[in-house]
């Protein structure tokens, strides 16, 4: 015992922890890059480095998942690296690749989506003022962004115009830290570790939401709302942890399950703690009625950040929900499942009904995510192998489809940025048939049309729900899914059967990074609808390690 190393005593398995260590270590190195490199070189170096970190971590996940490595509990029981954890890690890292590409693209918005560096902005403004007497000079718009009069697009040959100010590159370490928090969140084996991971993933997202170059006040308002409501949700979560510790004498999920299945005792603390814990988890997953932040934040945040949040945050949150329900409260499911039936129904109905009334596409996607959260919750409530595999597959499919949709949204531009209003999509098929076709395909996937990933995902979770005796809940899900198809089809009808306005929005030509991100989302949406077997098998590779 005296010769046992500290890492052995703590239960450190570097092979199992490699993806998490790579991402968090890469985030720290990314901060150092911010401090060392000059501004002009940071963006390219940060992008290449961040992509390398994510790809290397993804490779280590695949190698471990295919190498037959045993499931382990590491770091003194704090993290569980099992088959569901590896699938969730692989999903998060795969979704991070197109998210990074959208984040770094500067072809659609000169200088990038995010607020410019103050020094570079001041320098650009000085150049503008110096050349303001020239008819071909540049000006500064009401948002403080340099605008070229001679040619607004990137690569414009306006010799008298100033170069667009460089974007802040802190967004790359922010994204890596958030991603590292997500990896830890869905693999946490005790509630205290889960809370720390929740804060690690949340704080960078609060900052990212407020960094939009255009519509700055809307972006900052979204960040403040997200922060304040997120703080309340975290407080509920932590209070629930305290009550469960008082009940079980431990915050480890397996110990809570043992206490719940043990000798007779008062369950007041158990279910009060679960109720408060659910509030915090459902907030992160955008489950109604804990969704109030979602429409405003989706609309106000920069679109690449919205894509990252909509895809990755939902994966991490539902991964944690699955683990908590299955490992800690699986033996008491009969007592609490009825209440969560009501939550699932409320989420599906709220998302569907309010989605019908939206006139902004990003807000429509937000309410769509609330409805989809209700569908995913059906798989979570099943607490069966079929429910687990169906839910994990749904998270993978939904993530790629959502990233593709929001990438396409970023291409439709009006004079002050993105054309968020649905009227801006009238006649889009005439102006850009490829963009209209890709957007239509992804919207049909959200509606659950066959030969798309959405159909396979809904079939998987609804089948698991039926097999576990939740037929009424599945019927509500089917009805809401059919109603929700209306607001997806409404956009498609506008794109193909409405005349474009003469002075309406234009479609920007995407750069290579946005093109790759959108193509990846569309291709995965198609493949998961046509050949889903491999993904479903990996999703059902094994249960949670208690």
Give a description of the structure.
With 546 residues, the protein is mostly helical. The protein has one domain. 69% of the residues lie in helices and 3% in strands. The protein is built from 21 helices and seven strands. It has helices at 6-10, 14-36, 39-66, 83-104, 118-130, 171-187, 191-209, 216-248, 253-261, 268-284, 294-300, 303-328, 333-356, 361-382, 385-409, 428-431, 433-447, 453-467, 471-497, 512-530, 533-539; strands spanning 72-74, 79-81, 138-140, 146-148, 412-414, 417-418, 506-507. The chain has a three-stranded antiparallel sheet with strand order 6-5-7, with no helix packed on it. A two-stranded antiparallel sheet has the order 1-2. Helix 14 (361-382) packs antiparallel against helix 19, helix 15 (385-409) packs antiparallel against helix 17 (433-447) and helix 18 (453-467) runs antiparallel to helix 19. The longest helix has 33 residues, at 216-248. The radius of gyration is 24 Å and the shape is globular. It starts with 5 loop residues before the first helix and ends in a 7-residue tail after the last helix.
Q: Structurally, how many domains make up the residues?
A: 1
**Largest sheet: spatial strand order:** 6-5-7
Radius of gyration: 24 Å
Structural class: mainly alpha
The amount of beta strand, in percent, is under 5%
Number of beta-strand segments:
7
The residue ranges in which pLDDT falls below 50 over 5 or more consecutive positions are 132-162
User: What is the overall silhouette?
Assistant: globular
Mean pLDDT figure: 85
Distance N to C terminus: 27 Å
Helix residue percentage: 55-70%
Largest sheet: 3 strands, antiparallel
H/E element order: HHHEEHHEEHHHHHHHHHHEEHHHHEHH
Number of helices: 21
């Amino acid at each position: 015992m005296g010769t046992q190393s500290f890492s052995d005593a703590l239960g450190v398995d570097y092979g199992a922890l490699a993806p998490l260590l790579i991402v968090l270590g890469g985030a720290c190195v990314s901060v150092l890059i911010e401090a060392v490199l000059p501004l002009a070189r940071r963006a390219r170096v940060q992008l290449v480095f961040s992509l390398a970190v994510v790809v290397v971590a993804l490779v280590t996940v695949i190698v471990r998942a295919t190498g037959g490595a045993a499931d382990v509990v590491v770091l003194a029981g704090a993290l569980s690296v099992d088959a569901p954890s590896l699938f969730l890690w692989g999903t998060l890292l795969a979704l991070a690749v197109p998210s990074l590409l959208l984040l770094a693209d500067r072809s659609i918005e000169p200088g990038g989506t995010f607020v410019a560096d103050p020094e570079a902005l001041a320098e650009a403004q000085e150049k503008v003022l110096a050349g303001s007497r020239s008819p071909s000079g540049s000006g500064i718009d009401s948002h403080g962004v340099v605008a070229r009069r001679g040619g607004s697009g990137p690569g414009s040959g306006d010799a008298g115009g100033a170069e667009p100010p460089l974007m802040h590159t802190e967004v790359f370490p922010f994204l890596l830290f958030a991603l590292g928090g997500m990896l830890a969140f869905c693999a946490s084996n005790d509630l205290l570790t889960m809370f720390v991971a929740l804060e690690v993933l949340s704080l960078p997202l609060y900052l990212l939401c407020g960094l939009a170059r255009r519509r700055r006040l809307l972006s900052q308002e979204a960040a403040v709302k997200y922060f304040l409501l997120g703080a309340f949700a975290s407080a509920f979560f932590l209070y629930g942890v305290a009550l469960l510790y008082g009940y079980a004498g431990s915050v480890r999920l397996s110990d809570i399950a043992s206490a719940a299945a043990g000798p007779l005792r008062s369950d007041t603390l158990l279910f009060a703690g679960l109720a408060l814990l659910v509030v915090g988890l459902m907030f992160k997953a955008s489950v109604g009625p804990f969704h109030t932040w979602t429409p405003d934040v989706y609309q106000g945040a920069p679109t690449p950040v919205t894509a990252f949040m909509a895809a990755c945050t939902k994966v991490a949150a539902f991964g944690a929900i699955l683990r908590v329900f299955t490992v800690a409260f699986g033996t008491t499911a009969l007592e609490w499942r009825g209440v969560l039936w009501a939550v699932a129904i409320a989420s599906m109905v709220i998302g569907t009904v309010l989605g019908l009334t939206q006139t902004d596409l990003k807000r429509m996607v937000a309410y769509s995510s609330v409805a989809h959260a209700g569908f995913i919750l059906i798989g979570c409530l099943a607490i069966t192998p079929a429910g687990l595999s169906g839910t994990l597959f749904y998270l993978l499919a939904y993530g790629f489809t959502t990233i593709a949709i929001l990438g396409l949204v970023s291409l439709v531009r009006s004079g002050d940025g993105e054309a968020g209003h649905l009227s801006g999509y009238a006649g889009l098929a005439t102006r850009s048939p490829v963009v209209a076709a890709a957007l239509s395909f992804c919207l049909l996937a959200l509606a659950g049309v066959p030969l798309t990933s959405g159909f396979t995902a809904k079939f998987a979770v609804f089948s698991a729900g039926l097999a576990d005796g939740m037929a009424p809940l599945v019927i509500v899900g089917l009805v809401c899914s059919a109603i929700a198809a209306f607001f997806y089809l409404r956009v498609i009808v506008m794109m193909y059967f409405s005349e474009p306005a003469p002075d309406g929005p234009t479609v920007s030509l995407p750069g290579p990074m946005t093109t790759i991100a959108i193509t990846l989302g569309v291709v995965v949406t198609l493949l998961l609808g046509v050949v889903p077997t491999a993904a479903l098998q990996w999703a059902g590779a094994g249960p949670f390690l208690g």
